[in-house]
Amino acid sequence: MVGLVGRLWNLQYKSIVKEALGKTLAVAKFFCVLHITNTYLCTFALAYGPSMVPTFNLTGDMFLAERLSIKFGKVGPGDIVLLRSPESPQKVMVKRLLGLESHSVTYVVDPMKSDRCDTIVVPKGHVWVEGDNIYNSRDSRQLGPVPYGLLEGKVFCKIWPPKEFRSLMKSGMKDPGFVVDAI
Amino acid sequence: MLPTLNLTGDLVLAEHVSHRIGKVGAGDVVLVRSPVDPRRILTKRVVGMEGDTVSFYVDPMYSQTTVVPKGHVWIQGDNTYASSDSRHFGPVPYGLIQGKVFFRVWPPDGFGTLEQ
């Protein structure tokens, strides 16, 4: 009688352990898929700061960025991109791409102080990025053309705040007459 | 990268953790995405980190000294006579480092860590 109870207990214990291992494996697989998607397919990020006003708010907008376009070279002028900062490698910035290699870019050097414009040809392997809010943005006008290898993702959709949920595909080229969307 | 790495191709192991936690320093052999061609990855040695003063020979008579700017590293190939590196394209942003080489696997007589 005791032997039978003992054997039943062993059986139950084994099945509990097996079930626990199975569930742990399922969770581990889920995190692996999440990590692969985040690194190679699509990621979301929170942007804060004044440099991309009015496209992104000062206090922080969440958006989705995909990573495949960068790897296949399918970015062009007008796209909003995520890139690693050339002066602080732990920071990731979000700016608008204005010129690829061998493009000739004209930019306002310091709009707070004067209207002086400068033209530069973007060297091979580099890109020119600028924030939409040129009055308060630290970008290629101060840092110089940025190597293409620092690009990390292309922003395609804004998801937070929910009333500003919209696609950010190549519809908004930097336009001096841009009116703030009252969505 | 002679004489550290052979002309005909060595197989090396590189780890992706060190550069994320900031443990890459002068003297390390690193994998770096080329600033000139973003599809190529180069293997070079880090000679100077940000803030270091680096001097290099532009030609056998004339040497130049630069300070590595913030957030950048100075990379040079070990074979300075035939290497396209920071002496040509300038300091490279730290964010372009892809990994640190720590071990050679092939050829078998070079099996082990790389010499400094």
From TrEMBL, chain A:
GO terms for molecular function: serine-type endopeptidase activity. It is found in: Mitochondrion inner membrane. GO terms for cellular component: mitochondrial inner membrane peptidase complex. Residues 28-108, 117-160 form the Peptidase S26 domain. InterPro entries: LexA/Signal_pep-like_sf, Mito_IMP1_subunit, Pept_S26A_signal_pept_1, Peptidase_S26. CDD domains: S26_SPase_I. Keywords: Hydrolase, Membrane, Mitochondrion, Mitochondrion inner membrane. The keyword RNA-binding does not apply. GO terms for biological process: protein processing involved in protein targeting to mitochondrion; signal peptide processing. Transmembrane segments: none annotated. It comes from the Eukaryota. The active site is at 51, 95. Coiled coil: none annotated. Belongs to the peptidase S26 family. IMP1 subfamily. Catalyzes the removal of transit peptides required for the targeting of proteins from the mitochondrial matrix, across the inner membrane, into the inter-membrane space. Heterodimer of 2 subunits, IMP1A/B and IMP12. This is Peptidase S26 domain-containing protein. It comes from Lithocarpus litseifolius.
From TrEMBL, chain B:
It holds the Pfam family Peptidase_S26. It comes from the Eukaryota. Transmembrane segments: none annotated. One of its GO terms (biological process) is signal peptide processing. It is found in: Mitochondrion inner membrane. The keyword Iron does not apply. This is Peptidase S26 domain-containing protein. It comes from Lithocarpus litseifolius. The lineage of its organism: Eukaryota, Viridiplantae, Streptophyta, Embryophyta, Tracheophyta.
